[in-house]
Write a structure and sequence with these properties.
The structure is a single chain. It is built from 10 helices and 8 strands. The chain has 313 residues and is α/β, with parallel strands linked by helices. α9 packs antiparallel against α10. The model has no long low-confidence stretch (mean pLDDT 88). Bound molecules: uridine-5'-diphosphate and magnesium ion.
Length: 313
């Protein structure tokens, strides 16, 4: 029987923790597999820490990792995978948007297909605003169009991965980890699992617009160099326009059909247009340089302050 860990990142989730643990535990108890939970407290400033410590004292199957500060969702999941020693792992949100009740079916699917990854595809999303739904739909399609790796659409980090995938994931050194993309990139046998995403049971999203944008731009920058090629394309395009304009005005001067002297408007437009193109190009370059800078420093993904119920710490 394969052993299982459920990996749950938690950031200021005091209002959902108790219920989240109760529901997950109930599902795990009904399994025949040896199963535990790894909670990663991503530097919460509310009572999440205390609640998790209480759970860990009462239940030795629950492991807890406390970060030294907030490192972000992806770092928390990374720590969970890095510290997992079971045959299988399932990544869940603490807010129960990804229902733990689906775990038995995910395990069955893994068994039946002998899959290395069972990724969960949302067919619908309850309790999320039109903006979030629409922006995420658009984003996943844009990302797929831009990048070389096939990343399944409408799929979050909610998935089952096996030891093989975890071992390869542990070897990845990049700092800006876009986990759902990286797991696709790792390869092996990956099968979909369709589900309805539920509403948060309590509390509010820890992904405000600012974090969402950062998340999306990281995904794009780490998984695609196409923006660089696109600005080069833009450069060639504007050069062509420039050449055409040059030829037109020169001929116009020679044959007298151009009124170039009165061209204040066209000059200003051209200057602003080309200025804009250059700024965009520099901006895109800058984004990649920023990434190089971050990566070259090679700081760790996260810093752990304390671990609970790990035999070897
Ligand atoms: N999370 C985290 N660190 C953060 C932000 C979020 O560990 O900096 C956790 C959060 O507690 C939750 C999961 O990541 O378990 C997903 O966050 P959330 O539910 O707020 O995102 P949404 O489902 O709204 O996209
Ligand atoms: Mg959520």
């Amino acid at each position: 029987m394969k052993s299982l860990s459920v990996i749950v990142p938690c950031y200021n989730e005091e209002s959902v923790m108790a219920e989240s643990y109760r529901r997950t535990k109930q599902v795990l108890q009904a399994l025949t597999n040896p199963a535990g939970i790894i909670y990663i407290n991503d530097g919460s400033s509310d009572k999440t820490r205390t609640i998790l410590n209480e759970i860990a004292v009462a239940d030795p199957q629950v492991k807890v990792i406390h970060f030294s500060r907030n490192f972000g969702h992806q770092s928390a999941v990374t720590a969970g995978i890095n510290h997992c020693d079971t045959d299988l792992a399932i990544i869940l949100d603490a807010d129960m948007q990804d229902p733990p009740e689906l775990i038995p079916d995910m395990l069955k699917r893994q068994e039946a297909e002998q899959a290395n990854v069972v990724y969960c595809v949302r067919q619908s999303r309850e309790g999320e605003g039109v903006f979030k739904k629409l922006s995420s739909k658009l984003f996943y399609r844009l990302l797929n169009a831009m990048c070389e790796v096939d990343i399944p659409l409408d799929t979050g980090d909610f998935r089952l991965i096996d030891r093989k995938v975890m071992a390869e994931f542990d070897r990845l050194k990049e700092r800006g980890k876009y986990i759902r993309g990286l797991i696709s990139w790792v390869g092996f046998k990956q099968v979909p699992f369709y589900y309805e995403r539920e509403a948060r049971i309590a509390g509010e999203t820890k992904y405000p617009l600012r974090k969402m944008l950062k998340f999306a731009s990281n995904a794009l920058l780490y998984f695609s160099t196409r923006p660089l090629r696109m600005v080069m394309g833009l450069g060639f395009f504007t050069v062509l326009i420039g050449l055409a304009l040059g030829i037109w005005t020169t001929l116009g001067k020679l044959y007298g059909f151009s009124k170039a002297e009165s061209g204040w408007t066209s000059i200003i437009t051209t200057i602003i247009f080309f200025g804009g193109v250059q700024l965009i190009t520099t901006g895109v370059l800058g984004q990649y340089i920023g990434i190089l800078f971050d990566e070259i420093k090679a700081r760790p993904d996260y810093i752990i302050e304390e671990k609970k119920n790990f035999t070897k710490s």
